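WARN retry 2 of 3 for item q-0093 after timeout on previous attempt; input resubmitted unchanged.
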Amino acid sequence: MGTGRARARALPLALALLLACSDVAAVAAQGTERIQGSAGDVLEDDPVGRLKVYVYELPPKYNKNIVGRDPRCLKHMFATEIFIHRFLVSCAVRTLNPEEADWFYTPVYTTCDLTPWGHPLTTKSPRMIRSAIQYISKHWPYWNRTEGADHFFVTPHDFGACFYFQEAKAIERGVLPVLRRATLVQTFGQKNHVCLKEGSITIPPYTPPQKMRTHLVPPETPRSIFVYFRGLFYDTSNDPEGGYYARGARASVWENFKNNPMFDISTDHPPTYYEDMQRSVFCLCPLGWAPWSPRLVEAVVFGCIPVIIADDIILPFADAIPWEEIGVFVAEDDVTKLDTILTSIPMEEILRKQRLLANPSMKQAMLFPQPAEPRDAFHQILNGLARKLPHGKGVFLKPGQKVLNWTEGAPEDLKPW
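OK item q-0093 returned
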């Protein structure tokens, strides 16, 4: 924890930064900067014509019926699995001829069965996926010839296909064995982690695009808040002792900066939340139970420089979005130095990050609008799938060859669904 004397020295500089940012807000808002090099080219790619996707027709118990029972899952942060399905059904890359397909998609809504408190019942998710795979393997020959190596699944839960919200138990479970050859489209991404399958496509979590767009403020609005955060610092319900949630990073933010005038942080979620982010220079994006957070999407869309506090995180569409240039990365062990780190960033660097964030393509790539729009997150997923083509020689199995072990996994996961 920094001393009061250190904070006192940092405060005048922070206030000067705030004043400067307020004065140049209009200039920064009017100017955008194109993403240079291959990253910009990838971001603006059009995937149509570069791949074909076959969408399996499953019984509605795997998808539509679940939404019908509980429409809340259309709005939560895991809803990408629903909207990707809807997008692909009407997308130009869809083929009705499986013989010409590059990829096969199995629409299973693994996070749509919710508790009364709105949390996914992930104990059912592995059984749902196993059941769906058994169904497609009986009705079509395409899974069996590759055991899923040319198939992709959307697994948007906290720790992806490990299907548990607490990291230790997710690691113990591991990725569902029957998905080990498939490509996962998932929000979870962390280097050298058992829940991140090699070759996964990391995507942003779902945030309601239309809701955010209705809260846009004029671009010349001054950014008069230096650091902004709203959310939990302790999850006392699931982590009573307070040392496991967010690996202590959020608790450290609160204990060190709750009385610092440069930091507008609170557990409250005001009706002006979106407007406040657009009035802020920096928005904290710390890990929670998992390293990712919807705040990352909100910060990019609202032009607030994301301060990413999540060691070894793999960020959405990292080959298309220059995260190092638009964000600030702070190690979890360095949270106590946040004030010094942020006040030390030169004004020129802040302005450049704001210009990059103002790029419409950057914002578009983080959203799942309905209907879909050019260069949005749906199209970035297709770009990611296209870049994995053509499939290697090892994709197709020899006659009678088996790789996956259907009897492997937790006993609870092997029960019928």
